Amino acid sequence: MAHAPDPTLPIRTIKTEPAQSFSDAAAAVARLEALYKQSITFLAENFARVLDGGAPGTRFRAFYPEIRVTTTSFAKADSRLSFGHVSGPGTYSTTITRPDLFHDYLVQQIGLLMKNHSVPVSVGMSQTPIPLHFALAGQPDLTVPHDGMLEFHLRDVFDVPDLSTTNDDIVNGAAYTHPDGSGPLSPFTAQRVDYSLARLAHYTATDPQHFQNHVIFTNYQFYIDEFETIARAALADPASGYTAFVGPGNAQITDAGAPLAPAPRLPQMPTYHLKRPGGAGITLVNIGIGPSNAKTATDHIAVLRPHAWLMLGHCAGLRNSQSLGDFVLAHAYLREDHVLDDDLPIWVPIPALAEIQIALQEAVAEVTRLEGFELKRIMRTGTVATIDNRNWELRDQSGPVQRLSQSRAIALDMESATIAANGFRFRVPYGTLLCVSDKPLHGELKLPGMASEFYKTQVSRHLLIGIKAMERLREMPLERIHSRKLRSFDETAFL
Q1: I need a labelling partner for 57 at 20 to 30 A (CA). Which of 84, 134, 205, 226 fits?
Q2: CA distance 419 to 301
Q3: Phi, psi dihedral angles at 378 (to 5 degrees)
Q4: Directed axis angle between helix 448-474 and helix 354-368, to 10°?
Q5: Beta bridge pairs of residue 132
Q6: Nearest-10 crossing angle of helices 291-301, 190-204
Q7: Domains, the chain, ranges and CATH?
Q8: Cβ contact 40:12 at 8 Å
Q9: Checking DSSP bridges between strand 327-336 and strand 379-387, what pairing results, if any?
Q10: What 3-state class would DSSP assign to 220?
Q11: What is the rounded radius of gyration, in angstroms, for the C-alpha atoms of the chain?
Q12: Which of 47, 45, 62, 58 is nearest to 5 (CA)?
């Protein structure tokens, strides 16, 4: 049974100043940054004292800053916009963490809110405590010890993560309101964001500030190797706009010929970032195999509010007309992965997004130099089935094969539907371009010799297609790529 904090201990905290009203987004974010720094400094300094001096006989508590806005008008904002406005009169709020990391995003979103409703925003301290673990996340010289390593219970003295404020109720559409009755202004609470930032650093071995707004997921290390080759060529070209390449362990190069220091050990999901000013570059994540990994990665990257994510991986081709190396552009998904069934019911359709589909098809045409009817020789558009059993071929095939045929599936993998479904759930534009690496229903299994040759010839252009698609999406206006298709009845104002 978890140890409850001692309710008799007095609580020491920062003197709370009245909330301030702002009509300038940049000034509002500067105030958020000052309040957040004040809170984490208070916790860090007192934690260091406690480590030196033992149990202090008091609790220390600091709070997340918050943004709050009230509108009394039923006037509609521009109906073409999917974000930047609240759905009706009322008070809306959100707690904020790491305003330094989210500076540009916050300035943009607060500015839209002010513009669309002609109201100021209020910035002050919330009533949500900052857990000590999250406050110290960016301070490597201070580490929170495990339970039992101190002479006192840590939770008697500091706040620890609280699952009641670390959940996906807002994005899951659970008719969420904050304890004070205000509606949500952002899709994630500050604790939920902090939780994912910590998990991202653990799984990818890169700090969150390196993540770019365009994320590619893959399931093979071959793509990582090719990504480094492409990144070095981009760094060598001053016209490319790319400025740095970052790998696990936060190793970074800006010179195309410089060595990239290897990480002491590779993390579970090796991640690399080809950076561009304003976060407009590309992040590549090797999520490994399986829907559970796909969900884990997207659960956490979603809090960074990327503008698009794509799955570039290998798949089993299900049609005899397909050949090894052919491309599959998913326009529908058969979800037999099951990892999201509790968050997103299986009856929810996951639509193809025209902006992503067009960008991918145009990129395939550019790289392969095939167009129109000729493009059909190497690319097929259709339903992709995602399953949670890698060795599905070893079971009685009559059931699975019938379902695959009835669904009109053309390819099968273990990640794509999960990534698309989580994109739908988190309102992150998504897409899938797979490459056929085997045809199990037709006797062409992925054997070592075949796989090596396949990887040698196909990985380079497959990844190049994904990068070119992302570069097309980068040039789109934000309101076009973040369209209304992914928004529900009562949406948060922030993307």
Answers
A1: 134
A2: 11
A3: -120, -5
A4: 120
A5: none
A6: 130
A7: 11-192 (3.30.1730.10), 205-474 (3.40.50.1580)
A8: no
A9: parallel
A10: coil
A11: 24
A12: 58
Three-state secondary-structure class, residue 347 = coil
List the structure tokens of 165: 């404020």
Alpha helices in 142-253 (DSSP H): 154-157, 190-204, 221-235
Would you give per-residue pLDDT tens digits along the chain (495 residues)? 345 566 678 899 998 889 999 999 999 999 999 999 999 999 999 988 888 877 778 899 999 999 999 998 777 777 678 888 898 899 999 999 999 999 999 999 999 999 999 999 999 999 999 999 899 987 777 676 655 566 677 778 889 888 777 889 999 987 788 889 999 999 999 999 999 999 999 999 999 999 999 999 999 888 999 999 999 999 999 999 999 999 999 999 999 999 999 988 889 999 999 999 999 999 999 999 999 999 999 999 999 999 999 999 998 888 888 788 899 999 999 999 999 999 999 999 999 999 999 999 999 999 999 988 999 889 999 999 998 876 666 665 655 777 888 889 889 999 999 999 999 999 999 999 999 987 755 455 554 555 556 566 788 899 999 999 999 999 999 889 988 888 888 899 999
Interhelix angle 448-474/221-235, rounded to 10 degrees, is: 50
Confirm whether pTM is higher than 0.85: yes
Tokens of 62: 């600091």
> Tokens 């202090």 — which residue?
56
- Helix, strand, coil percentages for the chain (3-state, nearest 5): 40, 20, 40
Residues 179 and 171 sit within 8 Å (Cβ to Cβ) = no
